[in-house]
Amino acid sequence: MSPIRVRTTSDYRVLVVVTWAGNRKGKLRPYKILKKDPEYQEAFKNFGNNELIGNLNYQQNIFNIIQRFICNVYNVPNVIDVDGARLQIFIDSYTVSDVNEAFDLKKLRNFDASNLPPCKSELLQQFLRANYVCTIWNNAHLKNPTTYQPDNTGWVLKDDKYQFKWFKGNQLPSYVRDSLKTQSETDEEGDVEDDHAIDWSSSDEENDNIDDNA
After folding, report:
1. What is the pLDDT of residues 17-52, one digit of tens each?
2. Residue 77 phi, psi dihedral angles, 5° rounding
3. Which of 62, 45, 66 is nearest to 54 (CA)?
4. What angle in degrees, to the nearest 10, is found between the helix axes of 56-73 and 82-94?
5. N or C: which terminus of the chain has fewer CB atoms within 10 Å of its end residue's CB?
6. 159-212 pLDDT, tens digit each
7. For residues 167 and 153, what is the distance between their CA atoms, to the nearest angstrom?
8. How far is CA 95 from CA 22, 160, 173, in A?
C-alpha cells in the first residue's frame, strides 16, 4: 500500500471511529469510495494538519469535500451538502406518485432517522473531533503531542469533564419548534376535553340510577 494510502486510511478510520458519520454503512463501502477518488484521499490526508484548526477558510474547503464523501456513502452522489442529502433521502422515501394518494403516517412513524446522514452542524463537530485526534496521532512521538485544547474542537468542558458537543445552534428550525409546541398544546387541550366528557358521562349514569320514587 502506498504511503498516501496508508496515511489516508489512517485518518479515514479516525473519522469512522470518532464519529457516527458512517452509521450502518459498515467500512467496506466507504473505503471503496475513498479508494477510487483522489480528491477524497487528499482531504483525509489533511486531517491532523494544524491549519485545519487555525485557518477557517481552509477548514471549510476540506469540510465541504468530506460532506461530498458522506453524501456518496449514503448513496446520494449528486448532492454536495449533507443537509440536502437528508432532504433528498426523505423525499425519495415519502413522495407520493399521485397527489390524491393518502399520506402514509404509519410509514412515517416507522422511519429510522439513523438511515439519514448527520446534519451539517453535527457533522462539523464530528469533523473537528476527528481532526483533533489526528493532531495527537501525528505528533505521538513528541513529548507534547498537541498544544490545542479539546474546547472548540468537538468537545465542551462541563463539570470538569469533557463531553461531546453535538451541534452548534438550535436543534430545530424555529418554525418546526413552534409547530411542535402548538401541536403539543392542542393535544393537551384535547386530553382535558376528554376528561370532562368522561366526568359528564359518569354524572349521567349516576342520574339514571336514581329512583324517581325515592
Report:
1. 445 555 666 677 888 888 899 999 889 888 888 888
2. -70, -20
3. 62
4. 20
5. C
6. 989 888 888 877 667 776 677 676 666 656 555 555 554 444 444 444 444 444
7. 11
8. 25, 47, 22
How remote is the C-alpha of 191 from its chain's centroid? Answer: 33
Question: What CA–CA distances, in Å, run from 116 to 21, 25, 105?
Answer: 10, 11, 19
- Residues found in the chain: 214
Backbone angles phi, psi at 50, to 5 degrees: -55, -30
What ranges do the domains of the chain cover?
Answer: 3-169, 170-214
Question: Residue 4: CB partners within 8 Å, gap ≥ 6?
Answer: 41, 45
Output the CA–CA distances (angstroms, integers) from residue 30 to 16, 38, 90, 188, in the order listed.
9, 14, 21, 46
DSSP alpha helix (H) spans, the chain: 3-18, 28-36, 38-45, 51-54, 56-73, 82-94, 105-109, 120-138, 174-208
Set of cell numbers at residue 211: 329512583
